[in-house]
Amino acid sequence: MKPILIFSLILTLSVSFCFAGTEMPAGENEAQIHLETRINEVLEIIRDKELIADPVKQEQALYAKAFEIFDFNTFSMLALGRKYRAFSVPQRQEFITYFSKLISNTYFPKLAGQDISDIKIFYQGVHALKPKKDIFRTDITTELVKGETHVAIVYRMIQKKGQEWKIYDIKIEGVSMAANYREQFKEQVSQTPEEIIAQLKEKVEK
Amino acid sequence: MKKILGLIIVVLIVSISSLPVVAGEGAAAPEEDTEFSEDLFDEYDNKNPEAQMVADPIYYFNYAMFTFNDYLYFYGLKPFAQGYKAIVPTPARKGVNNFFNNLLFPVRFVNNLLQGKFESAGTEFSAFFVNSTLGVLGFNDFAQKHMGISLQDEDLGQTLGSYNIGNGFYLVWPVLGPSTLRDTVGQVGDMFITPVTYVEPWKLHWGMRGVDTVNRTSFRIGDYEALKDAALDPYTAVRNAYIQNRRARIKD
Predict the structure, then answer these.
(1) What total number of domains does chain A contain?
(2) Containing domain of residue A99, as a range?
(3) B20 at the A interface (CB within 8 A)?
(4) How wide is the angle at C-alpha A142 spanned by C-alphas A132 and B220, nearest 5°?
(5) Does B13 touch chain A (CB under 8 A)?
(6) B143, B101 in Cβ contact below 8 A?
């Protein structure tokens, strides 16, 4: 174990020196470091052999961990567009609950049997957006490599005052998830918040 | 949209798995900062040319074709590809994939040139040369594996897009799937420089196209299902994903 520890220490130090050397706004590298740490933590959970044997436990561990990473409020806001304004606070909560369930119900069961042992993530660039009052945003461009397959992924991150960096949208091969849902909700112009929630609920519970 | 499902899943797990285990637990009071949200809305709005969505004047035709393709996938292509995948080992499937990919060299080469990407065109040429020789007719992607060369996927639709020619409107073709007026023109143009087009007799020609399609699909089983399952409106989700993906590919 020793060489690994030393190696990672060197790696960490060199990474921080790299960042110290470049003149980036304070928030920028912070966002990337935060993202990297979180992604590594999640990958560890996915690779944990004990948890692989116990899917229920693995799911719980993932929930607990990944919960800190994603800003579902902002994501929902973007997915709904201006319709979001028509939602009362409890309706927003309800929407978020079912919306997150819909996405996880779709993808979680498919995790079983996936071999992700050789996944590598390359961080290719950070682009800080102009801050708005106390809200900072940064786009982090990455490439996920598995075997000979490369997938371009952009994590859009946000930091509100006094809070940690969180992901509010992901672009996979140029496809923004929030924008994708947004157009779907837009198609149903006449839907009220109640109807939207009911539709989500039905889809989740089906 | 042609990437492996597993990768997408991991990305989603990594990022979206933020499930409120107890409802509302993580949904910190959804207070709205109006000024900020207005900014965000504008950014993702239709008025932003970056987020502009495609016109769909022949919606009913497209929807019918979408439904037809959906059936074709679930009752024809998918079971076929699953059977094929069960019989043909992965290295062989990869080889077939490489072979057909190598044959698309003229399309990538010409479109790199048309977009003024001379360096990429050169890379294409060397990759084609190496893969066709050392890679034994392209079955082995020697250049990518051992020389660190990566190919840039270009086609005439992207070239036209890079000349600022718009999508026109959305078009769903039976069997071939989502496209736009511009991309259809591109596909027809590209056909003329695709070697498979000129293969004779016609049985061999269609056989090759069939193998190519089934082989490609064998790598992507589950992708379409996932997109469809996560969608509230699968037709719109696919249309949107197609347009966003094409836009990103034109930009690079």
Answers:
(1) 1
(2) 2-205
(3) yes
(4) 125
(5) yes
(6) no
At what angle are helices A72-80 and B34-43 packed, to 10 degrees? Answer: 60
What are the pLDDT digits (tens) for A37-51? Answer: 888 888 888 778 888
pLDDT digits (tens, 9 = 90+) for A70-122: 888 888 899 998 888 889 999 999 998 888 888 777 766 666 556 677 788 88
Q: Cβ–Cβ of A103/B16 closer than 8 Å? A: yes
CB atoms within 10 A of CB B137: 13
* Closest residue by Cα to residue B116 from B162, B50, B68: B162
Peptide bond into B201 cis (omega under 30): yes
Q: Which of B97, B128, A123, B95 is nearest to B120 (CA)?
A: B128
Q: How many CB pairs under 8 A join A and B?
A: 205
List chain B domain ranges. Answer: 55-81+88-251
* A162: alpha, beta or left? (left if phi > 0; alpha if psi -120 to 50): left
User: Which residue in chain B is spatially nearest to A181 when comparing CA positions?
Assistant: B237
| Inter-chain CB proximity B244 and A104 less than 8 Å | no
Number of H helices, E strands in chain A: 8, 5
Q: Is B200 on the interface with A (CB under 8 A)?
A: no
Q: Which two tokens stand for residue A37?
A: 């740490």
**Is residue A26 predicted with pLDDT exceeding 70?**
no
CATH number for the domain spanning A200: value is: 3.10.450.710
Chain B residues with beta carbon closer than 8 angstroms to that of A119: 7, 10
Residue B148, chain A, CB below 8 Å: the answer is: no
Pick from B237, B216, B234, B230: nearest CA to B8:
B230
Q: Which two tokens stand for residue B99?
A: 């072979």
**HSE-up of B97 (CA within 13 Å, CB side)?**
19
pTM, rounded to two decimals = 0.82
User: For residues A119 and A43, is the Cβ–Cβ distance under 8 A?
Assistant: yes
Confidence tier at B121 by pLDDT (50, 70, 90): very high
Do the chains contact at B5 and A119, CB–CB below 8 Å?
A: no
3-state SS, residue B179: strand
